[in-house]
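Tokens help. One example:
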Amino acid sequence: MAEAFTGLKGALVDIKDTIKGFNMIMDGEVDHLPEMAFNLVGSIEDAIAKGEKMMADVAG
């Protein structure tokens, strides 16, 4: 439904993967990533990939 507003395809994340991602966030394992890496992504792996790409783009 949000695709019409964001232009991005939605992602269904399994509850086990959601809990895994939540625990990684709460344990500080992804504190090195920019906050925007977590915006409009599916799994924690998607957020990590987006964050690493964002940091690489800034580093040049």
Remarks:
- The chain has a mean pLDDT of 94.
- The CA atoms of residues 38 and 47 lie 5 Å apart.
- The first helix runs from residue 3 to 6.
- The domain at 11-59 is CATH 1.10.1140.10 (Bovine Mitochondrial F1-ATPase, ATP Synthase Beta Chain; Chain D, domain3).
